[in-house]
Amino acid sequence: MLLVDFERSIEAQALTTQTPATRVLKALLDVKRFVPSSYQEELTEASRLLVSASLNHVDFRKAGLESDATNFLKGLMVDMRETSSDSSSEVTLQTLDNLKLEIPDRELEEGSPWCLMHRDMIMQTCEAYAGWDYSPIDALQQYDGHTLQAFMLYFFTQAGLLDAGLIDLKTLCWFAAAVEGHYHANPFHNQGHAADVLQATYFLMTQPSIAQYISRDQKFSTLLAASCHDLDHPGRTNNFLIESHNELAINYNDTSVLENHHIATMFRLCREDERQNIFRAVPPAKAKAVRKRVIQLVLATDLSMHFSFVANLKNRLAVSFSPTTNDEDMTILLRTIIKCADLSNPARPEKVSRYWTAAVTEEFFQQGDEERARGMTISAFMDRTQPRTQRCQVLFIDNVVMQLWRLCAQLTHSDEMVANLERNRELWLREMRDAGCNTSAAALAAPPNRKPSTPQ
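Given the sequence above, the corresponding structure tokens read:
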């Protein structure tokens, strides 16, 4: 489009629409008429960016990251605008006839759910696991491998959902058992991770500076989303499912594949058995609102939208942020809570953080093993023959979680999690230095040596 046509199209939009974006565009063009010519090209470029679809899209190449560092971050944050067309790394549909990830059906065992049979013990002991420094290992042992059932019973009860008549005890327990039964025995994305995200969600949601904004209905939606946010997770990334032409990617058109599947699985469970229908006593209008909110929150955990979300959160906090009077701000607040909970592992105390790091690293390696077996390109940091766990964690903290948690600290009025992030980051860097690795910013961003060497 010619420059003059571009500017005329903006002016036309500004005259016929009243969106914030077009008002900003019109203001930029008005300013352009009164500034020196040396600045006009920059104002035009700013206008182009405002109307582009990649306003909050991060170009990792311009960020100074290369090779495995870039590929790792992009692999976690699948963006359809950057889907590779390079056939050398693709696997044809014909070669995958017998290689699909099967999602087995799970049935509840006959008899009462575990959490219903152990209700008194759970309610008496679970408070010990409500703090930010709780031990997931101790919880797993305490509840005989049923951490998610225990946490769902405890935190849903503590949130006052049973008192409000939204759900009854037996329905909650049957639902919790069904949800737990549909998490797989993956190294990381298992019922323990779901319990951990639920625990972090409740912790953040009940901080005094946040609790004042959240109604009981919002608690219901958010705790549901946290409990089910990775339901039926196959232990592989969205990028893997898309590149391998998995049936889930086909079903969801390569868009938020896992997140859409988690949501659909939750609502399908509610329809399969009335005993586990968490919405059975919820009025239809309220159930519809809760469903809408759950969908919003689980989709927010898709890392492909991470940078856009963080940019939006930063902008909202810089102006007038009012969750009680602005539903958009309420949505942003609840999304921040569940995103921080989902990305809480590096922000936990060292011992807890290391526990989850070992789990996610093994899951990455298992994906890398399958990629090797299929003849696919092994995803960055997922090759167990070249482990670089410390470097992976530093990059993840620096490029993904640190800014989100700094913004969250403005909401919680607490620096505890940011302090943990900084401490854990320094410990990973110290291990790299002890192993003789270069830990300068340039070295962290540069492509690693492909030759077998001291694990990084």
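The chain has a mean pLDDT of 84. Try to locate this feature in the token string yourself.
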